[in-house]
């Protein structure tokens, strides 16, 4: 009976595979082809070789600046989000009164849309800076830290929930044995808790890494890339190139391909490193 059921596994997976090919594989392959062409529509295509890729890096500095800005933003945000989320998870698994209420409050920003979050923080930050006769457009660093704070506020709660689930699955016998042996809080954290939750750390790092690199709607609502493209992230730069500059559709497509490959490579590298760490622990 079991063998006869297994025959139908592939059949059940078929609808998902068809959707995956239609929505991802085919558009990616067609997009890769278009990145080597000049076009205005998909029926008006002229092959241009590597011209679009050359233009992506030479025609202006905005793409390079956006890449550096996105990379720095991602490094800072990934570290802060995971450290603070993990700290919240440790704190809210200690039977503190009102734990469930605190968990709900911290998680709630994740339920708000990115555009709304951007506008909320735009009002908050500009309200604070107005006291100094400045606004978020006055300096690139205001936009940078505004985006970091926004991303932290939105994502820390979600990652906290993952860490809480992992910490609660640690066998209590191990923690009790460590306490009996005289292990202090730091030893318990580094020798028992962190090794036990490494799979969750891998997941949270992957999610925050990809979310930060792909950020668009919050960037649009908070700074719109101002001042002078100084806070323009990669997704926004690609969108602006493709839709706002006539004749640059191929360049925008080439940037999108570069973006996809870079994010995929960085995410795969992170997964390989953290999974290796899991095995070592």
Automatic annotation (TrEMBL):
Any single Pfam family the record assigns to this protein: BPD_transp_1
Q: What is its main location?
A: membrane
Keyword field: Cell membrane, Membrane, Transmembrane, Transmembrane helix, Transport
Q: Which residues form the ABC transmembrane type-1 domain?
A: 67-270
Its annotated compartments are: Cell membrane
- TM helices/strands, residue ranges: 12-42, 62-93, 105-132, 144-167, 188-209, 256-273
Q: How does it sit in the membrane?
A: Multi-pass membrane protein
Q: Which SUPFAM superfamilies match?
A: MetI-like
Q: Which GO terms describe its cellular component?
A: plasma membrane
Q: Name one GO biological process term.
A: transmembrane transport
Read off the PANTHER family from this record: ABC TRANSPORTER PERMEASE PROTEIN, INNER MEMBRANE ABC TRANSPORTER PERMEASE PROTEIN YCJO
Provide the family line.
Answer: Belongs to the binding-protein-dependent transport system permease family.
Name under which the protein is recorded: Sugar ABC transporter permease
